Amino acid sequence: MPNRLSMVVFSGTVDKLYPVAIMASGAVAMGMDVDLFLTFYGLDAFRKGQPQKNEKMDVNYAEIAPMLGKLMKEKNVPSWYDMLRQAKEMGNVRVHACAMTLDLMGMTKENLDPIIDDVVGVGEFVSNAKDGEITLFV
Amino acid sequence: MAVATHDRIVLDARGSFCPGPLMELIRGIRQARVGEEIEVWSSDQGSRKDIPFWIQKAGHELVAAFEEPNYTRFVVKKLR
Q: Do A78 and B54 touch (CB under 8 A)?
């Protein structure tokens, strides 16, 4: 019986990518496997070079986002990308790119950040998620 | 940051946010030998519950938890 957290990562803003990385870390800490399915803006955030320079925040929180960003810098909070990389080093975190989004954008795996393990279709992701305990849409 | 004092490894994770201190502890435990004690320092509120919970789940021993001003020192013995 797998012990797994699956996440559909649809959002590409930093404020949503943080919970993805933190939930993945928590799951790995508790001995769970993690499966991430990156799609649409979530996949765009993993284009080569994007994880390092992406500073997009949810526009609904435009009033407080800059302040939060500043506080995180001051308090040396690691980037969501570094957190995710650490989670991947510590446990079984698999990062899947959505085949449909890649096709739509005319890209291949070579255009994506090396943290991505493979390109999968939605069918494969869903059938794997079915065997896990938790699936989140972020 | 790891500092060795007598025979116990100290991981100073103060200033690191949830789940940073727990992740440091897990890394430290992995590198330690069975029977060794590790001390992790945390100023993060989540650690107070997360660290003892993880220790129990992972089958190690929480030897002691000392409340210091603004942080907690968890002493953990690797059991397996």
A: no
Nearest CA in chain A to B16: A77
| Residue B21 contacts residue B51 (beta carbons within 8 Å) | yes
What is the domain extent for residue A67? 4-137
Q: Is B54 annotated in the active site?
A: no
Catalytic residue, chosen from B3, B18, B23, B64, is B18
Calculate the dihedral angle through the C-alpha atoms of A39, A43, A44, A50, rounding to the nearest 10 degrees.
160
CATH for A48: 3.40.1260.10
* Cα–Cα dist B51/B40, whole Å: 9
**Is residue A2 predicted with pLDDT exceeding 90?**
no
Question: What's the pLDDT at A10?
Answer: 98
Residue B7 has a pLDDT of 73
Q: Do B23 and A78 touch (CB under 8 A)?
A: no
| Helix, strand, coil % in chain A, rounded to nearest 5 | 50, 20, 30
ipTM, 2 dp = 0.77
pTM of the model: 0.88
Q: Name the nearest CA neighbour of A136 among A8, A2, A22, A4.
A: A8
How many structural domains does chain A have? 1
Alpha carbons B30 and A8: distance in angstroms, whole number: 30
